[in-house]
Design a protein that fits this description.
Length: about 160
């Protein structure tokens, strides 16, 4: 997207989101297609809900594109797995994610992609109950206690995005 051919699309999405807040336009969803992996604005956008960020190559896979579009239209988020595989920031020495098992990291990665419990259980071939148990374990190991003011699953995903290598 001109003029800079870098993070212009993400900046435009951020501008749209700020100019049209959810309270005024609760159904406004944004699916950003980009040839670049840009994470600076993406974390803020994905936490606001109804946001998808796919690399342009992913849009050629009609199933992936439609899946992401449906999740955003339903109020969720969708991030390209390639974006999730890249570090956002330097990993701190005391990484809370190191406490997670491999399977718990897989569940957390699918949560970060915007998958539901059912979607995660299908993808990993686990029961819904097992996925829920893993999520509970993830939240406990990351020290995310029950709160009326915070959404623990979103906080876990943000932690994942900020601390992955």
């Amino acid at each position: 997207m001109p003029p800079g051919l870098t993070d212009d699309g993400a900046r435009a999405a951020r501008h749209i989101r700020r100019r049209h807040p959810r309270r005024r336009h609760p159904r406004l969803g944004i699916v950003l297609l980009s040839p670049h992996t840009e994470t600076r604005h993406s974390v803020e956008l994905v936490t606001s809900g109804r946001f998808g960020y796919l690399l342009e190559d992913r849009a050629f896979d009609v199933e992936d594109f439609l899946d992401a579009s449906h999740r955003v239209a339903a109020g969720g988020s969708a991030l390209d797995p390639e974006i999730l595989s890249r570090p956002l920031t330097k990993r701190p020495r005391d990484d809370p994610l190191s406490r997670l098992t491999t399977r718990e990291r897989e569940v957390l990665a699918l949560m970060a992609e915007g998958r539901t419990k059912v979607g995660t259980s299908r993808r990993l071939r686990l029961t819904d109950r097992t996925v829920e148990t893993r999520i509970g374990s993830i939240l406990a190991k990351l020290g995310l206690a029950d709160s009326d003011e915070d959404h623990r699953r979103v906080l876990a995903v943000l932690l994942y995005l900020d601390h992955r290598s």
